[in-house]
Amino acid sequence: MSRTQVVLLLMSVCQLSIMHGQDCPSRQELQSSLRQVHKLLSAHETSYMQSLRTLRKKLNLLQTSAARLPAKPNNVTCPKLEAPANGKKMGKILLPGHEVHFLCDPGYELVGSETRQCKDSLTWSGQQPLCRDINECSSSPCLNGGTCENEVNGFVCLCAKGWAGATCQSPLPTFFITITNTSAATAVGAAGAAGASVPPPATTSPLVRPSHCTHTQGTTHCTCDPGYTISGRDTSVCTDIDECELFHMGQAGRLCLHTCVNTAGGYRCACPVGYNLTRDGRNCKDIDECANRQHNCNQDQLCINTYGGFQCVKVECPRMRNATYVKTTPLRCERNPCPLDNRACSQAPNSVSYHYLAVVSDLSAPRVMFRVSAMRMIGDTLRFSLLGGPRARRHFTVQRSDRQTGQLMLVSPVSGPATLEAEVEMSELERRMLLGRYITKVTIFVSPYDF
Questions:
Q1: Which residues are connected by disulfide bridges in this protein (predicted)?
Q2: Which of 117, 153, 258, 386 sits CB 3.0–4.6 Å from 375 for a disulfide?
Q3: How far apart are CA 283 and CA 175, in angstroms?
């Protein structure tokens, strides 16, 4: 600033001071004030230049990434995917970058890709899945010459003569007795030579029946109806066999999968609410209330079938102070574009996905429960981590299975009924600078039963 400019500025300031009833500032005071203004302007200029450099770096990175991607046609989608037979498809949006997920009904196993993503080339990643019936007979569960017949979500053993039980593991007891009785033969006389029946005694309880005895040449031969046996020394009385107690747990399994009810001369199996008895009369099959429309979920809720019941869930996008989200599929929310100067918004998750799993009680561990994968990478590094409190970390951990995939692992068995929640975060970085965060929230419904 020239001497003339300083004088003019000093005169202007002096005039303003006089107008407000104050003394004129000295030249030294004015120069000190000017130096402070220079420092303030320099600090603002430095901050502004730093912001411009950061913005220029991000724009260059986006430009480089965009140059690698093929041109995206307008108003086009990937071909429509159908749900596999005996399975379900979740996800309806067919635009590039969106995913669909596949699940199989109980008793079937998924062959192919569990998740497929619409690529920018308008083709689907992975392979079209199918749901294949699990052949429970492949392990040869039927013992002692029994024949196995495979069923959906189970099997039936046709036992050889003399064997019983869910896997033909228990020998049948002998229901007759032979007694040598010379006095009885003498009393019968000539008629006894041909054989004579002893009249049955009267019985009143359905669990007690008379035996069927014949006398032949001094020998008494007594038999019982099926499901009864002679007990004690009284050969004229047959008592009911408690199959539930006798065959409850054999070498290879239970007589009834859930509850065994003893009946006169036999038994029957019962299932808990939410299950139907299978054709073999021993096993229980889960009822899919969601597929059979036996639920009470409203239009804003999703019906999730569980073992022995169902759950109504409502997926709502997260509410954050510095970012807003919109639902792009029934199970996925994506962040709206952020203003350039809103750093807090850019640090919020780019997307939040919701997934629901149903498992039986006391599932063996360790076991892979869910996989999170990046179909395409913009940065040079992917990081996977487990979010949540101590309860989530007590039951789960996150491991990397390959460069682009992390998997949620169950590390300890869980006894139902219980509901577990875990959040898997996938972070994408370029030279240690965060490019995006993606959250997957997994809710697991654990059945009260182990089937």
A1: 104-131, 159-168
A2: 117
A3: 27
On whether both 225 and 356 belong to a single domain, the answer is no
Q: Are residues 150 and 193 in the same domain?
A: no
Q: Among all chains, which residue has been given the structure tokens 């007694």?
A: 179
Q: How many angstroms from the chain centroid is the CA of residue 245?
A: 35
Same domain, 310 and 430: yes
d(CA 38, CA 240): 106
Taking CA atoms, 42 is separated from 39, 46, 49, 324, in Å, by: 5, 6, 10, 36
Tell me which residue range forms the domain holding 84.
71-134
Residue with tokens 């109806």: 225
* CATH number of residue 435's parent domain: 2.60.40.60
Q: Between vectors from CA 387 to CA 384 and to CA 390, what angle results, nearest 5°? A: 130
- CA proximity to 308, closest of 325, 339, 327, 284: 284
360 plus 265 within the same structural domain: no
Question: Do 272 and 345 lie in a common domain?
Answer: no
Q: What is the pLDDT of residues 189-240, one digit of tens each?
A: 333 333 444 445 555 578 888 888 888 887 888 888 888 888 767 778 888 8
Q: How many CB atoms lie within 10 A of CB 395?
A: 19
